[in-house]
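Sequence only, no structure available. Ideas?
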Amino acid sequence: MANILWGQPTVKYKRILVETDEKDGRLLWIKLNHPEKLNVLHLKMLKELYEVLTEADRDDEVQAILITGVGKAFSAGADVKELMKSDFEKGVRWLKAYWRIIEIIRETGKPVIAAVNGACVAGGHEIAMACDLVVAGKTAKLGQPEIIVGSTAMGLGVQLLPLIIGEKRARDLLFTGRLLTAEEAYNFGLVNKVVDDEKVYEEARKLAIHIIENASPQAFRVMKSGLKFWTDLAMLNMMITRDITSFVWASREFRERCKDFLEKRKMKPRKFIGTMP
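Reply:
I predicted one. C-alpha cells follow.
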C-alpha cells in the first residue's frame, strides 16, 4: 500500500493517479487520468478505482479522500464506445463494477470530497453526487444527459436527483439532458461551493482539513450512515434497474443513437409510444 499512496504514482494504475497531497499527508487525491477522452469511465478504470478506494478506506494514514479529474473534465461519464459493444451480461457486470465504487464512496467513514473541473456529467456526475461534498470551478458543467444517447441515468441519477433537487427539477434535467452551470448547480443544491477554476483544489483541500481537524470521526461515521439510510430508500430497486438498463444498452436504438452521437450527427427523431393496452 505504501508504494501506491506515499510516493510517486506507480505503473500499477493506467488510468488513475493516486497522490498524497503535497501540503498535508493526511489527504489522498484520486485523479481520473484519461484526459484525451474527458476521463470517460470504462470497465478497467472502474476496477482500478474500486481497488484504490478500498485501499484508501483501509489505510489509517488516509484521513480524507479527494476525487478529481486530470485535464478539462472531471468525467464525461460512461465510455459509450464500450457500452455499444456490450450484451446483456456485459452490461450487468459493468453496472456491478460501477455501483461498487458508488457504494464505497457512500459507505466509507472518511470524508470524500469531489473537486469538479470542467465537464461532470452522466456517470461522472453520479460519482460527484455520491461524494460527501462537492467543490466546483466556475466553468464546470454538471448534469445527466444520458437520455440523448438513449441510456437511462439509472446508475444513480434517477434515484438521487429527486432527493437532492426535487422531483420537477430532476425531471427537467433527466428528460431534457440539459447541463447546469456551476452556479446553477449550486442553487439547485448539487454543489457546496463554487470558486474560480484555479482555486478548486485548494478549496477542496480546505474543506477536507476543516472536517478532519474539527469533527469527531465516530460522530461523522454515524451521521454519514444516517444520511445514507434515506438515500438508500431510493435505491431499493437497483438490481431491477441494473437488468433493465443492461437490456437498454443491448438494444438497437441505443447503439444507433450512440453512433450518431460519436459521429456528431443530428439525432434521428423517434416516435414516443404509449403504454395502454
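The radius of gyration is 18 Å.
Hope that gets you unstuck.
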